[in-house]
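Dear Dr. H.,

I hope your travels went smoothly. While you were away I took the liberty of generating a structure for the chain from your last submission, since the lab meeting agenda had it listed for discussion. I wanted you to have the full record in hand beforehand rather than looking at slides cold. The sequence, exactly as received, is reproduced here:
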Amino acid sequence: MPWTVRSGAHVDWPIGTRRVSSGRRRVGVGRAAATAAALALLGLAPLVVKREDWLNLGVVFFLLVALAQSWNVMGGLAGQVNLGHAAFFGIGALVTRHLWTGGLAIPLAIAAGVVLATAAGVAVGLAAFRLRGAYFAIGTLALAEVLRIAIGNLLPEISTLPAGVIAAYRLSTRYYAAAALAVATTLVVAALAASRLGLAMEAIREDETAAEAAGVGALGVKLAAVAVSTSLAGLAGGLFAFYHISYYPQFVFSPTWTFDPVLITFIGGVGTIHGPVLGAALFVFLREYLALRWVDLHLLIFGVLFIAIVLLLPGGLVEATARLRDVVGRRAPPASPEPPGGAEPASCSR
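The corresponding predicted structure, in token form, is as follows:
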């Protein structure tokens, strides 16, 4: 049954489609709530874990969850490939660090970084989304590389926190902030996916021409996706600036901050809510394990494992868990039906 369009860009969904969508929304909300609850529980680790190496690993995990969720908005929900996600992460980190060390309160510094990262993303989208094809991916990649080279030349010295800030530095505070960010980004993406805007993003991802014919404003929807994605990336960059004591300013514009969330999202499951969380857990564990056991070969081994996952499980770990549930369900013996009236089966009666 085709969609019918009433006044303007309003889309009236068929009855059957509405029922299926609401059912999927309920399942998605339940899974998102469970995922957020699990992340919140991990966020309480400093109450029982005192080893700083484990807490540092936890901060990295939460940061990658937030960054992967932000990339998932564009690449998973809207189907627009962003190859320069590091640009918006870096803008958030650079602005936050500069304003914070200049005396501005950290929440206000992070907010400023988020605003500038979002503005940069929307500007690139306005220029690229009016054309079809890979222009947005090329534009974001070019922006990230230009910023990386420019910042490396303009700010060659290492950025270090002031002595007073270092003296008051508490890793547990950064851990709680990272956990809160991971929970917040997961809930934001889940709410977006369950909204009408999220349905419009999915329609554009599947067939942009058909979505526009049905009354979906493709340019506005894609710009909204860019705004949400880049604002979350800028927020993650602000957390990075708050977490690290010292780093080179050009490091936050490294392609690592683009391709790590891409890998994590594909490993976990593109377009899903809990996929980036599963992918980040496996990514961090494998990277640390392989780096310790096979120092010289860990990147090669990790690359081969990633290719195998993408080829064998295009849906990532989410698809793997779904297949496992199906296998377990098929192997479970069916329940024997009771005869009516509580009587014994005919074969057992005499």
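Two observations you may find useful: Residues 101 and 164 are 11 Å apart (CA to CA). The chain has one domain: 4-252.

With kind regards,
E. W.
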